[in-house]
Amino acid sequence: MRYLSLLLILVLIAPLFAQNSHEDDRIYDQVRLKLTEDDTVKGGGIEVIVKNGAVTLRGRVHDEKARAKAEKIAKKVKGVVSVTNELKLPNAD
């Protein structure tokens, strides 16, 4: 009986994890697309990581304006709950 209860719980919870993964994939795609399309950011070299709606931006951008714009773009994507901006400027190490 205990195994049956555990199996039932897993069956009910598993779709929640699949939804989070699907939503993270959608957020990733939207953030990447919007960063790439933006003339200020030119986001080809920006790494985007999404986990449960939390976005982390990593890599290098050419100036502070592009750094701030990348964060603003990511925050506007539906489903994003937070943005951690780890983008660096060329002279920063």
Structure in words:
With 93 residues, the protein is of the alpha+beta class. The protein has one domain: Histidine-containing Protein, Chain: A (2-Layer Sandwich). Helices cover 53% and strands 22% of the residues. The chain contains two helices and three strands. Strands 1-2-3 form a three-stranded mixed sheet. Helix 2 links the parallel strand 2 and strand 3. The longest helix is centred in the N-terminal third of the chain and has 36 residues. The N and C termini lie far apart (58 Å). The mean pLDDT is 85.
Provide a quick synopsis of the model.
The chain is α+β, with helices and mostly antiparallel strands.
- Which percent band covers the strand fraction? 15-25%
The number of distinct β-strands equals 3
Q: Identify low-pLDDT runs.
A: none
Q: Structural class from helices and strands?
A: alpha+beta
Q: For the largest beta sheet, what order do the strands appear in spatially? A: 1-2-3
Q: Could you please say which CATH topology applies here? A: Histidine-containing Protein, Chain: A
| N-to-C span | 58 Å
Provide mean pLDDT, rounded.
85
The largest β sheet comes out as: 3 strands, mixed
User: What is the share of helical residues?
Assistant: 40-55%
Based on CA atoms alone, the radius of gyration comes out at 18 Å
Q: Which CATH first-tier class would you pick?
A: Alpha Beta
Bulk shape:
elongated
Q: Order of SSEs, N→C?
A: HEEHE
Number of helical stretches of at least 4 residues = 2
